[in-house]
Amino acid sequence: MVHSAVSVGIGIGVLVVIYVLLTFEILHRTAAAILGAAVVMILNIAMRFTDFRTLLEGIDLDTILLLMSMMIIVSALSRTGAFDYLASTILSRFKTKPFALTAILSGFTAAVSAFIDNVTTVLLISPVVIEISRRLRIDPRPVLLSIVFASNIGGTATLIGDPPNIIIGSVAKLRFMDFIENLAPIVVVDFFVFLGVMRLLIRRWLEEYRRSARLDALAELGVASIEKGLLRRVLVCLGIVIVLFTLEDFLRYPPAVPALIGAGLLMALARKRISIEQVLADVDWSTLVFFMAMFIVIKGVEELGVMEFIAYGIVGYAKSLAALLMLILWVSAFTSAFVDNIPFVMVMVPVISSISAVLAIDPKPLYWSLSLGGCLGGNGTLVGASANVVVAGIADKHGYHISFKSFMRYGMPVMVATVAVSALYLIIRYAL
Prior knowledge:
Blueprint: H1 5-23, H2 29-46, H3 52-56, H4 61-78, H5 82-94, H6 98-113, H7 118-136, H8 141-154, H9 163-172, H10 176-201, H11 203-212, H12 218-221, H13 228-246, H14 248-251, H15 256-269, H16 276-282, H17 285-303, H18 306-317, H19 321-338, H20 341-359, H21 364-376, H22 386-397, H23 404-431
Helix pairs in contact: 1-2, 1-17, 2-17, 4-7, 4-15, 4-17, 5-7, 6-7, 6-8, 7-8, 7-22, 8-10, 8-22, 9-20, 9-21, 10-23, 13-15, 18-19, 18-20, 19-20, 19-21, 19-23, 20-21, 21-23
């Protein structure tokens, strides 16, 4: 379908309004997303670009079901006392070293995120951060932000680590080891760059930690008991989920399938210890509704031609390989910071194929540029990646609000620094 400048302008305008509402917290983020979804529905139907059902198809039920299922599993895990135990173990070694504590949690998150989707990883690790912070009576938000940034960075390293990579790998016929060989080296460097940037950004928190953290909290941690019977059941189900996650690439089922299997099996095995009402009460329904509404918003602006406008705008301004790499990287990064990177990557993959054919160049470096921009760009704002919103929702439930503006104050420097290092890597490895 041919889109006019008017429809593209309207689509960009809708996004701007929504992000103003989110940035200044004029409305709750879920309310802002629902309002945006209603507006794009009206616009698309009135302008006859698409219909109601097509817009509803923009909702990624795989993501929604994955989130819901993993929230159920994490809820059950939290009732075993395992988070208390893990928190005490980490505190016993790093309680007097706040940055080491942050780095250890971030490194673990990044490593796990390379092989398990980011949302599942932060759902498992965030409660540990909350528990550690509660015991020490410190603000958990800097550490929560660190683990979500680390999850987005770590997920960039492999084919299965982040949805954009799965799309790129599937369409471009790239192997698992292609991603390891081309992206893992720079992801390791980006992780250490991220740690350096975060140390500067949280320096006041580090000073406050040293002054006021309740370092005698370790004495209290020994009283926490673990319900071993329930824990065994949860770990069996979680283990099945993780094994099934690793087989996604071979058996070709969506990530929601392992999570649904694990949640359903857990509810059957643990029915005498926890009720379905208890775990469903722990599901963050506000976050799930936010995702559904934002999927509609992104689908709506995509139908209005915004994604296509961005993608083909790149082609008009770059002819050499180096220029193409830089444009794809930075446009992907900033676009992914403000809109879901999945539809953008879906639009860009065929564009890259066309560019490489016209210019007679190898498309692989362009795909690596798209992957790095799309994945690392998710750190830029609160809505840049699904894991960001999930962590913000967890923080809210425990009384620690993470605003759009405060997330961006930390996330944008991390994004710019890691993307800048990645730009240098792309130029040196592929364009010189």
